[in-house]
Amino acid sequence: MKRHTPIILSFLFLFLFNISFALSKKDFEYSMNFYRKLVEKKVRVEELIFTLEKIINKYKDIGVNLTTVREKLLALKAFKRSKDHYERLEKEGASLDERIAALNRILNKFTNIDADLSGMEKELEQLQEKKVSKVKEPEKIEQFRVEKETAPPSIEAEFKEGEMSGSKIKKDFKKTEKIEESKENEDLEEFEEFRP
After folding, report:
1. What is the rounded radius of gyration, in angstroms, for the C-alpha atoms of the chain?
2. Domain span including residue 132
3. What confidence tens digit (pLDDT) does each residue in 66-77 have?
4. pTM of this prediction?
5. Assigned domain for 6 exists
6. Is residue 120 one of the residues assigned to a domain?
7. CA dist 188 → 62, 105, 194, 195 (Å)
8. Which residue among 20, 24, 137, 180 has its CA within the 20 to 30 Å range from the CA of 87?
9. For the chain, what is the domain count?
10. DSSP conformation letters of 68-123
11. Is residue 99 part of a domain?
């Protein structure tokens, strides 16, 4: 009987270990289902990262394969860094083209991520629409300018239309001469004041 005691104890240990592992595996599956529900609800990235970190910390010593969980966590952290970088670019006043390029890179890199990308996709569409409208506006302005521009009236045109008759031209010329003469007289008077 003494020989069988270690064998019985080892079977008992294996049985208890399998029971505890089965419970842990069920708990792990429950935790992952909870995480999937969060993804379906489209919660913020920070919440998804927090949940995955909790799952890893809770099940790291039990023997559950956490490789996929760690991969998801790394992908979410990389996405968060990219998102934060884009927000910093936006605050610093990056140009429309820079912001569009950054959003395209983020969306292309993280297409299969658990995070909600719909907000970034909408923002990209809005920026692209803005860019297209800015390109069209100058064309419209140029067309408007060409349509509305008229040449300033010239003396020759007014003369041809009969608006300026010969006597009117003479009067305007005489007024101009009088103004110029008065300016010259004033200049001479100032000069004479300084004569020794």
Report:
1. 42
2. 12-149
3. 999 999 999 999
4. 0.58
5. no
6. yes
7. 108, 76, 10, 11
8. 137
9. 2
10. HHHHHHHHHHHHHHHHHHHHHHHHTT--HHHHHHHHHHHHHHTTT-SS--HHHHHH
11. yes
